[in-house]
Design brief:
Layout (H helix, E strand, L loop, with lengths): L1 H48 L2 H9 L3 E9 L2 E10 L5 H5 L6 E5 L2 E2 L3 H9 L5 E7 L4 H4 L1 E6 L6 E7 L5 H5 L6 E5 L2 E2 L3 H14 L6 E7 L2 E7 L2 E7 L4 H10 L12 H32 L4 H13 L4 H15 L6 H25 L3 H9 L4 H29 L3 H5 L19 H9 L6 H30 L4
Antiparallel strand pairs: 1-2, 2-3, 3-4, 3-5, 5-12, 6-7, 7-8, 8-9, 8-10, 10-11
Helix pairs in contact: 1-17, 2-4, 2-8, 9-12, 9-14, 9-16, 11-12, 12-14, 13-14, 14-17, 16-17
Length: about 475
């Protein structure tokens, strides 16, 4: 009999070991793959956030840029202009003005703003060689007058008035000259003459004179026009300054100047108010359910509902906050409304965490306190609650971490506000996740990069909050 059962036991033991090894390997592989994906995601975000320093350096130098488009021969040709003039900047001292078109960075032709930031990031020295064309056509051609050719009836452009300090006058143009073509591009209109300068300059491998063909007294002449000016712009690159500027600046229509100040303050206000509302309510409910409530169908139903509420999508809470708090109670979509709505979201998690912390307190402590004549409230207040407080705070911080990263709920409450001030309790507000959502939706160059930088900031805050929760659990944990 023993000879028959022994192989069976061996097979059973072998099967258990195989099953244990299989599930252990599966668990380890899942953790390893998840960790690898997380690291890859963080690396991808960091790579996309890398232009932040160059963008901030460009902004400090006065090169706040935007990519524009010229419709030329049924094509859209991009070019870059300066959109925000800073009078005391290095670019202004070099002669760059608002709406000037950046054509070259060294010998590289510029078509998009991102090329300027990339050039700044890889500069071998702290100066940026740029070439630009004035955004004011009168500084080049003076006043242009469209007119009809009396012989052919074609539209042509004549110089009506030309200041002596203009680039065209210094190149040899004079009033009355008719612009025929720039390089190989025919000139057919006043605005088109300036656009032809941009297109012709972009075709040249580096800054240099442009061949302008004119008609003067019935003769065709070619004049070399130095329309593209050049300069060396001093650039100050510093990660510390870039990060500080990014964290302390308000939102802007220019990605080089946009920052997270309003979103960071709004997030901490929101989390602080949520903790202020959720902690007493959640802990009070947990104390009642664990220390006072008797076991009956009603309390069991309440416990079941609390557990189920943790699985409700956050957008449902957003609808409740919008319809009841913001509209029915006329509280509007302000910060206090967002905090109350967020309290509804994390309250079930706080109650569950507080109940679990209260359950870890040995019943012998309660019985000892009752033995010396303490009331139930005295037992809870002086013994149970202080011992359970580290676990309660850990659960609260983890719940607040979810609140810090929540977006769907706040979208319904209109938190995607363009703010250039620090919000108050009765003000409209924005938070970091919503700011990221807003920037990602922008089509302008650079907003995706600062959105990646904002994600890094959000991850850092969440890691700090979770690290604080781990520290509290380890520091105040008691072994019973």
């Amino acid at each position: 009999m023993s000879a028959q059962t022994l192989p069976h036991e061996r097979r059973l033991l072998t099967w258990r070991k195989t099953k244990s090894a299989f599930f252990g390997s599966l668990t380890f592989s899942t953790i390893l793959i998840s960790f690898a994906l997380l690291v890859a995601l963080i690396v991808y975000i960091l790579i996309n956030a890398r232009p932040l320093m160059a963008m901030r350096a460009a902004s400090r130098a006065g090169l706040v840029l935007s990519t524009m488009v010229i419709q030329w021969n049924a094509k859209n040709l991009p070019y870059v202009i300066v959109t925000d003039f800073v009078p005391e900047s290095e670019a202004a001292r070099a002669g760059v003005s608002e709406f000037d078109a950046i054509i070259h960075i060294g010998s590289e032709t510029v078509y998009r703003s991102a090329q300027v930031w990339e050039a700044i990031a890889r500069l071998p020295q702290e100066t940026l060689p740029i070439g630009w064309i004035s955004g004011d056509p009168t500084k080049i051609f003076g006043d242009l007058l469209p007119q009809m050719d009396p012989q052919t009836g074609a539209l042509r452009v004549a110089i009506d008035y030309l200041p002596e300090e203009s680039l065209g006058f210094r190149a040899g143009l004079r009033p009355g000259d008719i612009l025929v073509q720039i390089e190989d591009i025919p000139v057919t209109g006043s605005r088109q003459a300036w656009e032809a300068l941009i297109v012709a300059a972009q075709k040249k491998p580096q800054p240099g004179p442009l061949a302008v063909q004119i008609e003067r007294d019935g003769e065709l002449l070619t004049i070399a026009l130095d329309a593209e000016q050049t300069a060396q712009i001093p650039i100050t690159r510093s990660w510390a300054s870039a990060i500080w500027d990014f964290l302390t600046s308000f939102d802007s229509n220019s990605p080089e100047k946009a920052g997270l100040a309003s979103a960071i303050v709004g997030s901490f206000y929101l989390v602080g108010l949520t903790a202020l509302f959720a902690l007493p309510i959640g802990v009070g409910a947990a104390i009642y359910l664990e220390e006072y409530a008797t076991k009956n169908p009603l309390t069991e139903l309440i416990q079941l509902l609390i557990v189920n509420l943790t699985g409700v999508p956050s957008v449902i809470y957003g609808i409740i906050g919008l319809e009841i708090l913001a509209r029915a109670l006329k509280m509007d979509r302000v910060l206090i409304t967002g905090a109350l709505t967020m309290t509804l979201l994390i309250l079930p998690m706080v109650i569950i965490a507080a109940r679990e912390a209260l359950r870890t307190i040995p019943d012998s402590i309660r019985q000892a306190a009752y033995a010396v004549g303490a009331t139930r409230w005295q037992v809870v207040r002086s013994h149970v609650l202080p011992y359970a407080l580290p676990g309660i705070l850990t659960g609260l911080i983890i719940a607040l971490s979810r609140a810090m990263g929540e977006a769907a709920l706040l979208i319904l409450l209109g938190a995607f506000q363009y703010l250039t001030f620090i919000p108050g309790l009765r003000d409209y507000f924005t938070v970091i996740p919503i700011q990221i959502f807003t920037w990602i939706g922008e089509a302008k160059d650079g907003f995706a990069n600062i959105a990646a930088a904002a994600i890094v900031v959000l991850l850092a805050i969440l890691l700090l909050l979770n690290g604080l929760a781990i520290f509290l659990r380890i520091r105040f944990q008691r072994r019973w």
